[in-house]
């Protein structure tokens, strides 16, 4: 793989997230090539030693980061009966685990891949708890296809985008489409990868070509987004991230150890980022 030097023009045209953009309700974030890629991986989604094993191992850290965000600014209205929207849910690794939490009221998982949604539904049927009405629902849709909530009761306490945005061609319109689904006081939580030479070496070379931890073609380095770019985007959104409601945390996969939170890792590799929708406007 050959990567051309990143010029300022290339950054502006291809990689930087615009600070503001209009909603993309009339266009879709779905990339047919990405959907095809994950369709091909659907049958191994729940194999803990298969192509999704890194996602299985990362899942506990997802919950840890969500908890750290919510606990940093407690909202009494969401301490129980919490509602989740998992965008790009894949085969349901996070969605299932969230649906089993004591404080969860409901989880909705959406994904444009019909095959991974079929896998998610089939796996959920193995657990009677997940079959309780309203507990866990899967929809074969892009987030742009969902009806926009009209009242806070239709919104969600947590909207999650785990390992999704690096597979999107137009990340700013996609993020704008997700924002209306977060209720006041709720959080949008995502995980992704910084666009650095270190991340190219670890994900595109080592993970895909050398160790084969993930299938070849899973990652496109040019779509990675730096933490500061996401911060710039969210700081430009009215009613988001005020009073410390914008947090990030680096994480790193260590062979024979697993995923670990790494302070400062958001500058060069995998990271989580959470932004809170302000409860009130100033």
Automatic annotation (TrEMBL):
Residues the record lists as binding S-adenosyl-L-methionine: 62, 88, 111, 162
Location(s) in or outside the cell: Mitochondrion inner membrane
Domain of life: Eukaryota
Keywords: Magnesium, Membrane, Metal-binding, Methyltransferase, Mitochondrion, Mitochondrion inner membrane, S-adenosyl-L-methionine, Transferase, Ubiquinone biosynthesis
Membrane topology: Peripheral membrane protein
Pathway(s) this gene product operates in, as recorded in its UniProt entry: Cofactor biosynthesis; ubiquinone biosynthesis
Cofactor(s) this protein requires: Mg(2+)
GO molecular function, one term: metal ion binding
BP-aspect Gene Ontology terms: methylation
Enzyme Commission number(s): 2.1.1.64, 2.1.1.-, 2.1.1.114
Protein residues bound to Mg(2+): 163, 166-167
NCBIfam families linked to this entry: UbiG
Task performed by this protein: O-methyltransferase required for two non-consecutive steps during ubiquinone biosynthesis. Catalyzes the 2 O-methylation of 3,4-dihydroxy-5-(all-trans-polyprenyl)benzoic acid into 4-hydroxy-3-methoxy-5-(all-trans-polyprenyl)benzoic acid. Also catalyzes the last step of ubiquinone biosynthesis by mediating methylation of 3-demethylubiquinone into ubiquinone. Also able to mediate the methylation of 3-demethylubiquinol into ubiquinol.
Subunit structure: Component of a multi-subunit COQ enzyme complex, composed of at least COQ3, COQ4, COQ5, COQ6, COQ7 and COQ9.
Family membership noted in the UniProt record: Belongs to the class I-like SAM-binding methyltransferase superfamily. UbiG/COQ3 family.
Protein name, per record: Ubiquinone biosynthesis O-methyltransferase, mitochondrial
Protein's organism: Letharia lupina
Native organism taxonomy: Eukaryota, Fungi, Dikarya, Ascomycota, Pezizomycotina
